[in-house]
Every structure is written in structure tokens, then in C-alpha cells.
Amino acid sequence: MHGTTYVIEPQAIPSLPVAGTDKRFPVHRVYCVGRNYAAHAVEMGHDPNKEPPFFFQKNPDNLDTSGEFPYPPASNDVHHEIEMVVALKSGGTDIPVEKALDCVFGYGVALDMTRRDLQGKAKDMGRPWEVGKAFEASGPCTPLVPASTIGHRDKGAIWLDVNGQRKQTGDLNQMIWKVPEMISYLSGLFTLMPGDIILSGTPAGVGAVIRGDVLRGHVEGVGDLEVRVV
């Protein structure tokens, strides 16, 4: 608000670059869809045929475009999860599935880095996952590509290589909950806003990283992400 005086200096608004421009996309919230690929759900010990979608959050400033992932403290088991980013230009509540794609600004590629040991302890104790998911630089990300340029992505390869070896592979058409469905469902739980980001789930093959690893992720028609673990 113009003329507002803060008792401490406010932090800059978290944002992501928009590919091919000097503009940036301001990030409001970051929603992550859990176990949205059947093979990954099975990998994590769950039956994808019995579970509705569920969501957890990262913090907006967890998104990072530096190309480096600093190995976090308090964990000895940090996993990679490659995902397609969905960035919203509009929102609302109870958005119909058939209108959901009208809310999408564009897409990107990201990693949902996870302190799996801390997440596992939280699960065992019935506690929230934030300690395993919402830590600094836990969302390495590419610039966003507008949907007006590439269209909407409902199929195409998604994969991750670690040091040149393929670890995760899948296709966007394997998502249990498609992009319009996840937007619609999520809008029944929260009021979605312009600037919201959705990480749309990861295929099977998640695994641990160590310092020195080079991660290269790809979403067909969207882009490539390269990140070094430091």
C-alpha cells in the first residue's frame, strides 16, 4: 500500500523469470500434488486407485533459479522429484474443470527436493511434512514459458538424469489427476490467486542425491532444468 511504513524492511516478492522476456512472474503460493503418478504412488507404498488428490505447500521463496542446490542441514537422505510447473494468471473458488485451463499463464520444469528422512519421521508421527519439503532452495526451477507460446501440456516425456544416468521417466499423460482436474479440485479447498504455482507430481524413480551430483530434468515441449548439488 502506498505510504505504508513497516517496522522492518519487507522482503522482495518471490518471482520467476519469464522465458524470452525481461518480465517476471510474481509467486503467491506454491501447491504440490502428492503421488500424482500411479507408479510413484506404488513406489511410496500407496494404492493410487483408492486415493483422492492431496496437496502440500512449499514457500514461495523456496523456488530457486540459480542452478545450484545447496545440500540442506539436518538430513542425510535428500531425494530428487522432477515435476512440471503450472503457473496461474487467474484463480477463484470452485473453478469448473472445463474452465480451469483459462487460469493458466504458463509452464516450467522444477524439482521438488525432499528431505526424505525428515519427511518419513513426520509421517510416522502423524505430523505435517513441511520440515521435509519447505526448506531453502528446495524448489529448483526453470523460467516459465507462456501457454500462449507452447499451448497446454497434457502429454509428453518427463524425465530426470543424475550424472548422465536416467533415474526418473514417465509421460504427462500418466498423471492420475490432469492439470484441469487438479486446478478445479484445489480451488474447492483454497481460493486460488494470480501468481499461484502448482507442482503437478513426479513419476517413479525418485532417489537420493549427494554433493557433486548434476541433475538434468526435462519436460517435453516445456524445457530443460540443470542443477548441481553443492
TrEMBL record:
<keyword id="KW-0479">Metal-binding</keyword>
<dbReference type="Pfam" id="PF01557">
    <property type="entry name" value="FAA_hydrolase"/>
</dbReference>
<protein>
    <submittedName>
        <fullName>Fumarylacetoacetate hydrolase domain-containing protein 1 homolog</fullName>
        <ecNumber>3.-.-.-</ecNumber>
    </submittedName>
</protein>
<keyword id="KW-0378">Hydrolase</keyword>
<dbReference type="InterPro" id="IPR011234">
    <property type="entry name" value="Fumarylacetoacetase-like_C"/>
</dbReference>
<dbReference type="GO" id="GO:0018773">
    <property type="term" value="F:acetylpyruvate hydrolase activity"/>
</dbReference>
<feature type="domain" description="Fumarylacetoacetase-like C-terminal">
    <location>
        <begin position="30"/>
        <end position="230"/>
    </location>
</feature>
<dbReference type="GO" id="GO:0046872">
    <property type="term" value="F:metal ion binding"/>
</dbReference>
<dbReference type="InterPro" id="IPR036663">
    <property type="entry name" value="Fumarylacetoacetase_C_sf"/>
</dbReference>
